[in-house]
Amino acid sequence: MTQLDITQAKSNLSKLLDLAINGEEIIITQDDKPVAKISPIKRPLKRGTAKGKVWMSDDFDEPLEDFQEYME
């Protein structure tokens, strides 16, 4: 695990992302306290994996009855 100050992280973002892509976790600190972590995504995302799993009603964008008074 790599740890560096926020100022160093700002100037080396592309290198830090390369490290994360290769599996490294990076902790960013400010005043010697951890404030953020850059880590690799555990599984690669694949296009189309939700195909057929998402359904949307034909009236999904119709105003809700509970909010009619706000629409006037």
- Please state the CA-atom Rg, rounded to the nearest Å: 22 Å
The major pleated sheet works out as: 3 strands, mixed
* Helix and strand composition category: alpha+beta
Order of strands, main sheet, comes to 1-2-3
What is the N-to-C succession of helices and strands?
EHHEEH
Which strand-content bin applies to the residues?
A: 15-25%
Query: Would you identify the CATH architecture of the domain at 1-40?
Result: 3-Layer(aba) Sandwich
Number of strands: 3
Oligomeric status? single chain
CATH domain fold name of the domain at 1-40: YefM-like fold
| Unreliable sequence segments | none
CATH-defined superfamily of the domain at 1-40: YefM-like domain
| Overall helicity | 25-40%
Mean pLDDT: 88
DSSP helix count?
3
Task: Provide an overview of this structure.
The longest helix has 9 residues. Strand 2 and strand 3 form a beta hairpin. The protein has a three-stranded mixed sheet. It has a domain of 40 residues: 3-Layer(aba) Sandwich (YefM-like fold), CATH 3.40.1620. It is built from three helices and three strands; from the N terminus they run βααββα. Helix content is 26%, strand content 21%. With 72 residues, it is of the alpha+beta class.
Name some characteristics of this structure:
72 residues; YefM-like fold; elongated
Protein topology:
Layout: E1 2-5, H1 6-11, H2 13-21, E2 26-30, E3 33-38, H3 68-71
Parallel strand pairs: 1-2
Antiparallel strand pairs: 2-3
